[in-house]
Amino acid sequence: MHSSQPQHFNLVAAANASMIEHGFQPDFPAGTDTQLAAIEAHPETPSIPGIQNLSSLLWSSIDNDTSKDLDQIEWAEQLSDGRIRVLVGVADVDARVKLGTVIDTHARSETTSVYTGVKVFPMIPAELSEGITSLNENEDRVAHVIEFSVDASGTASDGKVYAAVVRNSAQLAYNAVGAWLEGTGPAPAKVAASADLAAQLKLQDSAAQRMVGGRFQHGALDLETIETRPEMHADQPIDIVRQQKNRATSLIEEFMVAANGVVARTFEDSGVASIRRIVRVPKRWDRIVEVASGLGTTLPEQPDSKALNDFLLAQKQKDPDHFPDLSLTIIKLMGPGEYVLVKPNEPSPGHFGLAVQDYTHSTAPNRRFPDVVTQRIMKAHLANAAMPYSQDDLNAIAVRCTLMEDAARKVERDMQKRIAAVVLHSRIGQSFPAIVTGVNKYGTFVRTLDPHVDGMLVQGGKGLDVGDKLTVKLISTDPQRGFIDFAA
User: Fold this and answer.
1) Greatest CA span in the chain, whole angstroms?
2) Where are the alpha helices (DSSP H) in 85-125?
3) Which runs of E-coded beta strand occur in 50-83?
4) Average pLDDT in the 91-101 region?
5) Which of 46, 97, 227, 329 counts the highest number of beta carbons within 10 A?
6) b/e map of 394-430 (b: 16 or more CB within 10 Å)?
7) Residue 44 burial (C-beta neighbours within 10 Å; 0-12, 13-18, 19+)
8) Which residues pair with 91 in a beta bridge?
């Protein structure tokens, strides 16, 4: 008889060990406290020449339910010509964390915050990323404002960037806002209490819906991977909850793609070297063609994101149960994203999955170092000052960011497996509906549907193939190794 309680296992210690194993330094270096004290001694808004005061606008943020490091806020305005003017305010981390300081040097090495489900390992101290550099509700903050206008076809134009003082009027969450926008849930309390905020969010949603339609017309890929998060109680995970995409997540995604495009084009038009975020044209397009052929669709011989997305949309309608697995296959065959130096007057390789040529990372400086670098380059450009980084510096930073982003994915994947093993320990002996996700020389792999966890079929299952549905029985879990074993 197994306990009805989840297995107790020190997941935080395991996360810390995984961070070190994959090349991170989870503890901040000597000198951090001294720098923090100096920053906190001057909490007032920094003085920046020419800065605008936009704190009276009805800004809001939408993020995960548990997010504390708020990087961006949004506001929109209906224009008389039918276009919608959108402003995205991005936290000015550089205003507090100066180039070459202890905290900056640590951030340059780590390059990213890592979210393990049981603990966040922040790139910069939480006193900053969740405090003085976070766009927290009802606090005046300095920000870079990225502005653009969206026409009826979803095209963004009139892009510009400038410094401003902003104030987040409402910190909101994806699930509640998404359900309200889709008409499947009530308005969140802050939205219900303010007709102006409700109208503001509806206008932002209208702009985003125009944009997503426009990008799909140009071949942006509609992929659906399964993301989960642990439900915690007393510092222990008790369940695995699937995170669903919705209208609110789409709103923020569209605004971030457009904002990052504005920044990239600003650099390109001005002949400024920068770091771009790219996903190259797939080298394994032939295998993508083969996968599509096996499902009855003929794709062009040469990579074509529009044709690929048409195939994906048709498959999503035809076979929604298997669509996340098809999405995962396509993502793996496209290859991972990477950061690269783009020199002045050099074409960018572009982002195949987003169907955009001009894309940088600029909207999450509290949690990603490339965004801090981009912010500093933009500041120098706007001030007609010397660039803060040489091209050699930018190339080295791009290589490091790509390396550590891959390492962060490995840490997060390790911890997802360990958390699932802890949660399912109390359910050993139970049966679950599942789908076969992989068959190779090491064995047969399955994904249970509720909760969504991956494991190995160690008993039975002879003759099964990818996509087959079956019922599996949980026979063991090993949190230390992240193993979950099933029998058919």
Assistant:
1) 71
2) 102-110
3) 52-53, 59-63, 72-78
4) 97
5) 97
6) bbebbebbbebbebbeebbebbbbbbbbbbbbbebee
7) exposed
8) 143
